[in-house]
Amino acid sequence: MARCNPEELEIEVRWKPFLLRPDMPAEGKPKAPAAPDNPRVGARLKGAGVAVGIDFSGKCDTYPNTLQAHALLEYVLDGIPAPRSLLATRYSLLATC
Questions:
Q1: Which residue from 31, 33, 21, 32 is spatially nearest to 67, judged by alpha carbons?
Q2: Could you tell me which of 28, 35, 90, 94 has the fewest CB atoms within 10 Å of its CB?
Q3: At what angle are helices 84-94 and 67-77 packed, to 10 degrees?
């Protein structure tokens, strides 16, 4: 079996948006109060945020509807090359708490 030389590969990253909560009302949905057994921000997400300089505080009281944010992101990023991933990540944070 022949081996592939990674330097000969052309790789393109494409962002494909998806809705985690497709039935979310336009105004969002209230979150349950934070509790020790049910924190608003889990340890895994908190750790991932810290690793890239983001503090997921969990202080937002609402799960947002991100449909308009997805539409705007697609409009803004259409045709923009890298660092699309960075812009997509940072913009998605504006739509959430």
A1: 21
A2: 35
A3: 150
d(CA 33, CA 43): 17
Q: How far apart are CA 87 and CA 9, in angstroms?
A: 25
Alpha-carbon distance 8 to 34, whole Å? 50
Residue 50 is predicted with a pLDDT of 92
Cross-strand bridge partners of residue 30: 62
Q: Which two tokens stand for residue 77?
A: 């990023």
If one counts every other C-beta atom within 10 angstroms of the C-beta of residue 6, the result is 7
| Token pair listed for 72 | 């705007």
Q: What share of the chain is helix, strand, coil (3-state, %, to 5)?
A: 35, 5, 60
Q: Rounded CA gap, 44 and 77, in Å?
A: 29
For 10-43, write each residue's pLDDT tens digit.
888 776 777 788 899 999 999 998 888 888 888 8
What pTM value is reported for the model?
0.52
